[in-house]
Design a protein that fits this description.
Blueprint (H helix, E strand, L loop, with lengths): L6 E2 L3 E4 L5 H9 L16 H18 L3 E6 L5 E8 L12 E6 L8 H15 L7 E4 L4 H9 L3 E8 L4 E7 L6
Antiparallel strand pairs: 1-2, 2-3, 3-4, 4-5, 6-8, 7-8
């Protein structure tokens, strides 16, 4: 790959994080409803959101992939984030590639998460040559589970994520339980 990969879909641009994104991202993460299924399950402070963006940038630097800032083409607003992440504490497969997303509530129900996640999964297979893509969610997060299915992942099982102390469901492009 030459430079930072920018992905475009019909309505979205998945791009590199800018310093100017932090305030908008902090507003997204301050909403406890947006953060209900994330860790921590509460709204984040501005400093915590800024730290999260820094972590997303560091993941890109370390692995050559990560979560993109997702911008709505029509108005240029930061809608949220979508991308790929490695979880070394996911003992089922510490070399995994997980697709995930987080969006401002005003962008929910418009298909943006599915649209961007499809682009991220395609990137994982075509550019990273990942053998499999997974996604992990709390069992009660039905909206994310629907997105997982829309992007072609199949239910693979439930497990206790020991390192995080959570019971989760996971989906996979292979759909094969381990």
């Amino acid at each position: 790959m030459n430079g930072f990969p920018v992905l475009e879909t019909e309505r979205l641009v998945l791009r590199k994080w800018r310093d100017t994104d932090v305030n908008a991202y902090a507003r997204i993460c301050a909403d406890p409803e947006v953060m209900r299924f994330m860790l921590p399950a509460r709204g984040l402070s501005h400093a915590e959101a800024a730290y999260d963006v820094q972590g997303l940038r560091e993941h890109w630097a370390r692995h050559g992939f990560g979560h993109w800032a997702v911008e709505e083409k029509s108005g240029g607003a930061l809608a949220g984030r979508t991308g790929l992440k490695r979880h070394p504490d996911w003992t089922l497969d510490p070399e995994n590639t997980e697709v995930g997303w987080l969006y401002a509530r005003r962008f929910w129900g418009q298909g943006y998460a599915s649209e961007a996640a499809k682009a991220a999964v395609r990137f994982a297979f075509e550019e990273l040559e990942s053998p499999e893509v997974i996604s992990i969610a709390l069992p009660q997060n039905l909206a994310s589970r629907r997105v997982m299915e829309k992007v072609g992942l199949a239910y693979a099982g439930e497990r206790h994520w020991e390192a995080r102390g959570l019971d989760v469901v996971w989906y996979s492009t292979s759909g094969q339980p381990a």
